[in-house]
Design goal:
- With 340 residues, the chain is α+β, with helices and mostly antiparallel strands.
- It is built from 8 helices and 6 strands; from the N terminus they run αααααββββββααα.
- The strands form 2 sheets. Strands 1-2-3-4 form a 4-stranded antiparallel β-sheet. The protein has a two-stranded antiparallel ribbon with strand order 5-6.
């Protein structure tokens, strides 16, 4: 950072964040006036977002109509045909080199075990969608032992609360050997406007609460209570100089279905401890990602294309960073740095 000099040639100390007490009273008043103006902007923003949420109600009906047609194809109750099954990339593949096409056809001969040719719809669509979204959107909540349960997930939908104060995620399941629920729900609540305690921190609608549901697990099938055996070494030597003995302990494992039993928030809207706050922060991020990304972009997660696009974007960023570094170094062609 360059030095700042005063008119007489001496360095001047720059205080980027002066203490309000260091300002003359009249300037303190001016700053407070600016804060009141800022609050006026925030109130206008809050009104804007309320109108946007009213639009959400209108357009959610349109989204629901499309999602219902998607659900029919996935379930196999409707078979698309004609223009419905045409896609632009198919024409591009037809123009490829014949050898490349032959190679792809050889790969296509090996069918995925979850998708035999004679099956109806797209079985395990949502299992594959959530697995592909796991790292990017679900914060790794899906564990390997969850997959056997999620294979029975038939649809994932979102609905707005009647008073438009939040949204509900609906996980629809077929009859399965794990629980009797047909639908598992997770409800999220928005804060309506800025936080009264910190109004100037407002940055749009914010999730401030969530509520899960009770899962009616069948006897012995509750995977949230699963344990794994872990060896621990107590660090004591056995008799006659025998090797240290290992103790096998049962440790509870994590599960995606813990998502339906979030930490509780007290009457003041506060979490009990630091761990609960961290868990809820993850929970809010995951719930919002499911609503805004996974549900509307499900087919791109299912195919993995959305992840390919992210990888290409990262590669472009990496290439640009390398080029920028090369320009900064200013190589002179013989491996040495050019000096002015």
């Amino acid at each position: 950072m360059s030095d700042i000099c005063s008119d007489d040639g001496h360095d001047a100390d720059f205080l980027p964040r002066p203490d309000m007490k260091q300002l003359p009273p009249i300037m303190q008043g001016r700053v407070k006036a600016l804060k009141n103006l800022q609050l006026g902007i925030i109130k206008a923003e809050a009104e804007y977002y309320r109108e946007v949420r009213d639009l959400d109600v209108k357009y959610q009906a349109k989204y629901d109509e499309v999602h219902q047609r998607r659900a029919q194809i996935i379930a196999g109750s409707y078979e698309p045909s004609g223009a419905e099954v045409d896609w632009a990339s198919d024409a591009e593949e037809e123009e490829e080199d014949p050898e490349v096409q032959l190679s792809k056809k050889a790969e296509d001969m090996t069918l995925h075990p979850d998708f035999p040719e004679d099956v109806k719809g797209l079985p395990k669509f949502w299992l594959h969608t959530l697995k592909n979204a796991n790292d990017e959107s679900l914060m790794g909540l899906v564990e390997p032992h969850d997959e056997q349960v999620l294979s029975h997930l038939t649809d994932l939908t979102v609905s707005l609360t009647p008073d438009n104060s939040g949204f509900i995620l609906n996980f629809h399941f077929e009859e399965n050997p794990f629980f009797t629920n047909q639908v598992l729900t997770k409800e999220y609540t928005w804060r309506d406007g800025p936080d009264p305690k910190n109004p100037l921190d407002y940055d749009g609608p914010e999730i401030v609460g969530c509520k899960g549901c009770t899962i009616d697990w069948k006897e012995g099938k509750d995977i949230t209570k699963m344990t794994m055996k872990v060896k621990t070494n107590p660090g004591k030597t056995g008799k006659n100089d025998s090797p240290d003995k290992s103790i096998i302990e049962d440790v509870e494992t994590d599960s995606f279905f813990d998502f339906f039993n979030p930490p509780e928030i007290d009457e003041n809207g506060e979490e009990d401890d630091v761990e609960d706050r961290a868990a809820l922060a993850v929970d809010f991020d995951v719930g919002y990602a499911i609503k805004e990304k996974v549900i509307p972009r499900a087919v791109l997660y299912f195919t993995g294309e959305i992840l390919d696009d992210d990888d290409e974007f990262e590669d472009c960023d990496s290439d640009e960073e390398e080029e920028s570094k090369d320009e900064e170094v200013g190589g002179n062609g013989d491996g040495e740095t050019a000096m002015s």
